[in-house]
Amino acid sequence: MYGDNGTESGFLIEYHFDDRNGPHYWSGDHIGHEAQEEWTLDPNSAVRFSRKADAEMVMVGVLGLKLPALNVRAESHEWG
Question: For 15-28, what is the mean pLDDT?
Fold first, then answer.
């Protein structure tokens, strides 16, 4: 989605590992949620969703999570 100021917005699936490097974003390269290879620190490499509901459906149906998940959430992001 594009805002009035030309920025793109959407939802990313964020995972907060215990390594304190900040959030990791689901890249869509692998199915599952436990191995760090499925996640990237670069939000530009993450799968983007137009709606939060779509991101949450992937979290449950593809990644096998139960919501609410302690370390994983769908968060709104903007790109300019």
Answer: 84
Give the separation between CA 65 and CA 20, rounded to whole angstroms.
22
Give the residue, 36 or 52, on which the prediction is more confident: 52
Our CA angle for 58, 61, 44, nearest 5°, is 20
Contacts 24+ apart (CB under 8 A), 16-25: 16/71, 16/72, 17/71, 23/75
Do the bridges between strand 72-79 and strand 8-15 make them parallel or antiparallel, or are there none, so unpaired? antiparallel
26, 15 contact by CB (below 8 A): yes
When pLDDT is cut at 50, 70 and 90, the band that residue 63 belongs to is: confident
